Amino acid sequence: MTAPTSRWLPLALLLAPACAALAAESPKAPIPLDVVLTPKADAGRIGALQVHLHLPAPRVAAGAPLLRMPVELVSTPTAAYRAEQIQVRDARGALPLRAIDEAPDPSGTYRNYLATRASVGDVDVDYATPPRKVDADTRNGPLFDLRAQDGGLMGAGVYFMALPPGEAPRQIHLRWDLSALPAGARGVWSVGEGEQRATAPTDLLRFSYYAVGAMQRVPENDDDVFHFYWMDTPPFDAQLLAKQTGQLYRYMARFFGDDGSDYRAFARRNPYPAGGGTGLAHSFMFGYGPQGQTIAEGPQALLAHEMAHTWPKLDGEEHALTAWYTEGTAEFYSLLLSLRAGVYDKSAFLQAINHRADGYYDNPFRALDNTAAGERFWKDSRAQRVPYGRGFMYLVSVDAQLRQHGRQAHSVDDLVLEVLKRQRAGETIGVPEWRAMVVRELGADAGADFDAMVAGKLIVPPAPAFGCYRVVPAPHQPFELGFDRMRMGVVKNLLPESAAAHAGVQENDRIVEYTPLEQAMADEHTRMQLKLERDGKPLQVDYLPRSARVDAWRFAVDPALAARCSP
């Protein structure tokens, strides 16, 4: 890849209650929440997004929180309004707020806005924020912030929305006031375009995407279940990407028994040479660099992974203990269903599963148990990748065993779809239930294998994998750039024992030019050539961006089983 990339862990644990509430009726009448979003434009350029909330008689006591929002979430700053930036009025007039921050947790810090007196009658709230200022030195991260694009704004509600606290479902009515924008402008929420209604907790508003302004959409058919939006003209074929991604989404939805659910994908430009994406409520946003950088395999693989997150999950545990399933199933089905849907041919599929295998064996945190890896998720992007590789390789292993020895299930498909079916029937299916399912199908050894996976023990899948692949030793030297790949404008977090450091790279060197990362990652012998600037003087550094050799395994077609090489 030409740039650092990241998929970023989805905040499924936060979205689950909101998404579940969309499909279920509350026994109590939900409290109404009216939301109006108004872009403020000057000379055709949107300079701020205003939020208006109408709360019918919330009866907030003096000193109780009226609103809540994050100050920082997974290392990404938000609008983090000061109390005086939020105007509140009720039947008595102005209602001043007082801001107080909660103690930080591993994912970030939240701020509560407390009423300085008891509210009287209905409450109206107004606040606004400009888009976040970003440049070539901005660190890549989750796509939460509100950013300017040519023609409009794109971002997540978690960046700019201060909302009533609590998990109770609300009767949300969201509207757009586009009167300041030219004809043809759109206002889009993850739930739909234009005026929308939904019954869900306020987390649905927070953990959704918003786009407003002049944008393109594929397909133009309002009734389609999949829509793809972009504003700037990207350096890749957005029309083709939208068509292929829509094809795959429809296939995935049918596979998971969810033919009618809408999905929206958004693409936005980054000012730095990096990409990646984040999935939120039935939607996904990905960023691309100036040359179209996303992830090494391109935007199609990125979108496939995030769309697969829409369905499989385990209940009832903290995220670190279920991330192997959340990320593992997304990796597994983004590839397998791409093959089945005809988006990948068999050669591309083999290349993709070997890329996943390399990612698993190369990770320096591979041996951490699930809890220990979870403690590092938001501190080190390499730890964040542990559940991706671990979950994928574990599911490949279980799938191979089920194809040979399953008692009722004949592949991982049967178990994953069983989990969904039982959850839809109202059961709580979590880690203990999954473990019981694999023991039911494969015996006590499957329970021990599961425990070993959780503990971070090495996974080498049995052959044949996917029905036709041998699993062959492939020791190699993992790629190691030597510094933070998420910020390629300047050297940060230089590893002192890395080849980069030994070659003379120093912390805070400004990066002028570098060997495309996908080129260096694809070939063990490709050297990294950096053009740097230090104290105003140019210099050039050349080194092999690799760390110590590791034991690893890859997949190869077994000639005797080639005819079975099908999904």
Number of strands: 27
**What is the gyration radius calculated from CA atoms?**
24 Å
Ranges where pLDDT stays below 50 over 5 or more residues in a row are 1-26
Q: What is the CATH architecture term of the largest domain?
A: Sandwich
- What distance lies between the first and last C-alpha atoms, to the nearest angstrom? 28 Å
Label the overall shape: globular
Assess the beta-strand content as a share of residues.
Answer: 25-35%
Helix content: 25-40%
Indicate the structural class: alpha+beta
Overall structural domain count? 3
Number of helices: 15
The average pLDDT is: 91
Q: So what's the CATH class of the largest domain?
A: Mainly Beta
CATH topology of the largest domain: Immunoglobulin-like
Give, in spatial order, the strands making up the sheet with the most strands: 7-6-10-3-2-13-16
Organism: Xanthomonas hyacinthi
Signal peptide: 1-23
Domain Peptidase M61 catalytic: 312-370
Keywords: Signal
Summarize the structure.
This protein is 29% helix and 26% strand. Mean pLDDT is 91; it is low at 1-26.
